[in-house]
């Protein structure tokens, strides 16, 4: 850059202010109409174990067991690698212990409850070769499952035994949900899932091909986000959307262009010149230096050609971008097309808007809740509504760690109050962080000590959301139903609510998630609702006050990347780039582009890729440092042999953009030299230098150091200053008077001497020619 300067105007080609109505690239597949047949299968391949048989459940019907209906369990048995299964029997056993607590759920699922109970169904399979698979179906008569309870959790164990063996060679444990009649108040259940970018540095690469590939991998067809959006289609799941998933929002840019690499110049110090002339017009002269080295730094942290996902550590080898001066750059068509398709897929979902870039409000609030950039990011949550063309609430905070330590409510209220949103309506928080020890699970509707509504999520229910690594969603579905029935049993007649959330890194199979949501939303004891409905009370379900837990729960995210020093440095960098952009012809693009990168560095996503934050942060720091050093005053030494003279000051522009309306300020360090008039505005072409004449006056002889600064029109110092060393030797009028007097005296002395001596002897000879001739004749007759 100096590539410094448009940072990646090449950067993300930065889709400059992409509009919501942009036309999608016809070459891109449409996310909103991708047929389910093209999605990954619900049943994932299972890697055989070495010594034991594996049991993968593929379906349990019906979802809710009722009187009069048998239960059919289907699945796949995978033989161990060490040998075949000989005439294996698949058995279903019913645990004898009642499941009424969450601890009992854990004990059964983990195998701590050693007895598997009585056998209620079985089927025998043909031999299965080592490492091979065989499907099975077992029908459990409902009579074997009958219970007098209105609702209950039935623990079952599906086991594989070989012919002649006394112990099972494989086992999996799960639960059946029993409900014979309605003797309860349904639980309102809201599900909230984040739609946020992965911490991939290549999203901000200066190489368009690398950048486009990264965006396609993060938001395009088959990406983690597209799978999540596809899997929640048609459900009541509320999606918390980060506006930056629609591409970089660089606004107010007129055009950017240029080529990589720039020519600049570096001045030499210690040169000696003399000035004595006057009458300069004060107009700087701009020249393009020849033979001078280019002022093109090579930032060590520049985003590189990598498109790894969370946790990837990209290398830093990309070529810096450059400030453009001529060609106009439009939005990145690939990124815009992908973003438009993602927006189209989101329009059918309930949504709330996160702060731009999913700013880490938990970390920044603890450091400085009045930080202006973070408040701005909260206000930019409105971009979600603009993109989707409908309302999207931006007044709900979701701290990534899920905690509510002392002071956080006030911190978050301060952040939101200073933003354009103005008021914080609610905070999403782990229920364990706001509840004291109790045998009952509180409702999700809570209220903080300072009066802010809290949306307390149930971490155990949340943990049951199906993951992409699960072979099928069956175990997750059955465990979720069991968890919800235990929750119901705590206070069956009391209206309550529950909130289920996915982590920022949540990854799922779309068909598995869709099947899970369909199964869990159709049971009679759960009532799916929008997450925002939990911000208000029902007549029979009011919010409970926040409580202080005996011990804070673990954080839902790794430690923050934002620190006090980093947040302060980013504020300084933002101010520096705004100042530099004021004197650049392409300044609006420069300011917006670097502002975008600094915004991205506040994101909570970097908690999962700390090395990525360092890579991107180092790149930005290097670029900003290079940009400020590229505009500089060349130091020099001068002999001033007059009372008044003109200093020729050289100002270098090493950027690939025109510098305009920049001011040169000269400040002597002692009064021997006085600046008669500071020079006016200066314009310097890209990769050039300007010779700026400055009128000065020497008051006394001696050495003077003049500090030369560059400033914007409002006086903000930018660029690199320099020292102009002047040896002042003023020749004043006294010297001329003394010299003139001495010359006059010499002339007068000569005239007086002539007058006082009288007439010359030569003048007294009457005939000088005759005397001369006689003298010559006498010399000829001389006998010698």
Automatic annotation (TrEMBL):
<keyword id="KW-0812">Transmembrane</keyword>
<keyword id="KW-0732">Signal</keyword>
<feature type="compositionally biased region" description="Low complexity">
    <location>
        <begin position="262"/>
        <end position="327"/>
    </location>
</feature>
<keyword id="KW-1133">Transmembrane helix</keyword>
<protein>
    <recommendedName>
        <fullName>Secreted protein</fullName>
    </recommendedName>
</protein>
<feature type="signal peptide">
    <location>
        <begin position="1"/>
        <end position="20"/>
    </location>
</feature>
<feature type="region of interest" description="Disordered">
    <location>
        <begin position="251"/>
        <end position="327"/>
    </location>
</feature>
<feature type="transmembrane region" description="Helical">
    <location>
        <begin position="735"/>
        <end position="756"/>
    </location>
</feature>
<feature type="compositionally biased region" description="Gly residues">
    <location>
        <begin position="252"/>
        <end position="261"/>
    </location>
</feature>
<keyword id="KW-0472">Membrane</keyword>
């Amino acid at each position: 850059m100096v590539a410094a300067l448009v940072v990646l105007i090449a950067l993300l080609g930065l889709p400059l202010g992409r509009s919501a109505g942009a036309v999608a690239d016809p070459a891109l597949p449409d996310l909103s109409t991708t047929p389910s047949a093209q999605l990954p299968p619900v049943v994932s391949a299972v890697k055989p174990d070495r010594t034991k048989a594996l049991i993968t459940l593929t379906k349990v019907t019906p979802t809710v067991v009722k009187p009069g209906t048998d239960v059919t369990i289907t699945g796949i048995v995978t033989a161990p690698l060490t040998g075949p299964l000989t005439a294996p029997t698949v058995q279903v056993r019913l645990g004898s212990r009642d499941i009424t607590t969450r601890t009992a759920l854990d004990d059964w699922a983990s195998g701590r409850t050693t007895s598997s109970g009585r056998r209620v169904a079985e089927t025998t399979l043909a031999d299965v070769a080592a490492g091979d698979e065989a499907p099975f179906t077992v029908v459990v008569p409902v009579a074997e499952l009958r219970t007098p309870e209105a609702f209950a959790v039935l623990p079952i164990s599906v086991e594989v035994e070989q012919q002649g063996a006394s112990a099972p060679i494989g086992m999996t444990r799960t639960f059946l949900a029993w409900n014979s009649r309605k003797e309860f108040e349904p639980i309102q259940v809201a599900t909230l899932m984040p739609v946020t970018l992965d911490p991939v540095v290549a999203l901000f690469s200066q190489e368009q091909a690398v950048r486009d590939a990264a965006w396609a991998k993060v938001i395009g067809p088959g990406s983690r986000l597209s799978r999540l959006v596809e899997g929640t289609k048609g459900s009541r799941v509320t999606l918390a959307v980060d506006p930056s998933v629609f591409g970089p929002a660089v606004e107010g840019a007129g055009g950017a262009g240029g080529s990589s690499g720039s020519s600049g110049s570096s001045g030499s110090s210690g040169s000696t010149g003399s000035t004595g002339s006057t009458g300069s017009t004060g107009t700087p002269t701009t020249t393009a230096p020849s033979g001078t080295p280019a002022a093109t730094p090579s930032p060590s942290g520049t985003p590189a050609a990598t498109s790894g996902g969370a946790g990837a550590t990209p290398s830093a080898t990309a070529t810096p971008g450059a400030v453009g001066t001529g060609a106009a750059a439009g939005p990145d068509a690939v990124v815009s097309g992908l973003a438009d398709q993602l927006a189209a897929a989101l329009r059918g979902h309930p949504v709330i808007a996160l702060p731009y870039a999913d700013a880490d409000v938990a970390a920044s609030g603890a450091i400085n809740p009045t930080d202006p950039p973070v408040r701005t990011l909260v206000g930019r949550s409105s971009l979600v509504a603009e993109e989707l063309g409908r309302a999207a609430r931006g007044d709900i905070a979701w701290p990534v760690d899920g905690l509510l330590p002392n002071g956080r409510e006030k911190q978050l209220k301060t952040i939101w109050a200073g933003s354009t949103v103005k008021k914080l309506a609610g905070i999403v928080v782990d229920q364990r962080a706001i509840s004291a020890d109790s045998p009952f699970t509180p409702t999700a509707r809570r209220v903080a000590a300072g009066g802010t509504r809290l949306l307390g999520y149930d971490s155990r229910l949340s943990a049951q959301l199906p993951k992409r690594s699960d072979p099928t969603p069956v175990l997750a579905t059955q465990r979720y139903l069991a968890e919800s029935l235990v929750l119901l049993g705590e206070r069956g007649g009391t209206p309550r609510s529950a909130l289920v959330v996915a982590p920022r890194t949540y990854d799922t199979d779309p068909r598995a998630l869709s099947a899970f949501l369909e199964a869990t939303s159709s049971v009679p004891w759960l009532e799916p609702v929008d997450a925002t409905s939990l911000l208000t009370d029902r007549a029979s379900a009011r919010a409970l006050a926040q409580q202080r837990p005996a011990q804070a729960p673990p954080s839902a995210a790794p430690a923050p990347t934002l620190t006090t020093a980093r947040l302060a440095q980013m504020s300084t960098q933002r101010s520096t780039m705004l100042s530099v952009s004021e004197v650049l012809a392409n300044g609006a693009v420069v300011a917006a582009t670097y502002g975008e990168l600094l915004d991205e560095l506040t994101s909570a996503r970097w908690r999962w890729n700390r090395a990525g934050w360092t890579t991107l942060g180092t790149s930005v720091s290097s670029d900003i440092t290079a940009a400020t050093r590229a505009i500089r005053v060349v130091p020099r030494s001068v002999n001033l042999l007059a009372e008044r003279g003109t200093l020729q000051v050289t100002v270098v522009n090493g950027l690939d953009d025109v510098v305009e309306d920049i001011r040169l300020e000269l400040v002597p360090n002692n009064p021997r030299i006085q600046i008669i008039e500071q020079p006016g505005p200066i314009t310097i072409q890209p990769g050039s230098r300007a010779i700026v004449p400055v009128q000065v006056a020497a008051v006394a002889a001696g050495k003077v150091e003049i500090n030369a600064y560059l400033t914007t029109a409002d006086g903000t110092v930018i660029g690199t200053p320099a020292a102009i060393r002047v040896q002042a030797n003023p020749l004043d009028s006294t010297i001329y008077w003394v010299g003139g007097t001495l010359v006059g005296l010499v002339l007068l002395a000569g005239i007086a001497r002539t007058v006082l001596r009288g007439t010359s002897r030569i003048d007294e000879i009457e005939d000088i020619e005759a005397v001369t001739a006689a003298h010559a004749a006498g010399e000829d007759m001389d006998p010698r």
